Amino acid sequence: MDYLWFLIQPFRRSPELVGAWRPFDWGQKEALKERLEKFTPSNPDVTNIKILLAGQIGAGKSSFINSVLSAFQGEIVNEALADTSSSGASHSFTTRLRTHRIRSADADLPYELCDIIGLEPEKISESQIDDIVNTIYGRVKEGYEFKEKPITSDDEHYNENPSLSDQAFCLVYVIDANTIQIAADDKIITEKLRLIRRTISKNGIPQVIVMTKVDEASPLVNNDLKMVYRSKKIKEKMELCSATVGVPMSYIFPVKNYHNEIDTNEDVDVLILKAFDQIVRSADGRLRLGAYNV
């Protein structure tokens, strides 16, 4: 018995699963890119589908936007300003609502990604939740500066009568794979995300999780990005995300954002494009139902 126990320990300790737990075609980059470049919103009154990104400070919201742009343009793009400081300071580099139009090498594409202020666990207030919900419903105009209190109807950036194009049709939670855990601060963040989820779910707004920095969270994946769906650690973190935030596993996508690279990479691109494709499909599915009844 002791000898058998000794023999099976390496398999128990192995960070690698026997096979990929989620089938993934690593050669689908060009097909995904072409499909997204040819995409047309289902509602003719909407020229650009708006998607809102939310998440904790430092999770990589702005870096994800840059990575999407980079994947389409075939070169590293840094349009969305990201805080790349290693000082560990807990503050959001994004302070105003800014919308980023997604472009390919040839033309603008019918997508807009909205970058908002990062969630801060030490001063997580209801105003942050209110501003996120108001932005989803199209009540917040471009350039609004996030404050301690939520936007009010007398603010110049308040949109009293949002059109269909003003509304966001998918909420993307950007979560750092390194920080998703049952820690005090993280519980505050995930509870607020769950509250946002409950608030907007009544209107059928789809929610997707983009789990960033998977290469930092798993040495196996850091050595080979293609091992992301064979990593026990990444699978466990995705399961934890699903349980704590309440988003199904099929709507959670692990990615590596571009950070210090000077050239794009096929494997990085295909994970980014696959996540973005699901986000777009989810958003367009909700768009078919029309405006929110709020």
TrEMBL record:
Gene3D superfamilies: P-loop containing nucleotide triphosphate hydrolases
MF-aspect GO terms: GTP binding
Coiled-coil stretches: none
A Pfam match: MMR_HSR1
Limits of the G domain: 50-213
PANTHER family, per the entry: INTERFERON-INDUCED PROTEIN 44, INTERFERON-INDUCED PROTEIN 44-RELATED
Protein name listed in UniProt: Interferon-induced protein 44-like
Organism: Carassius auratus (Goldfish)
Gene: LOC113068783
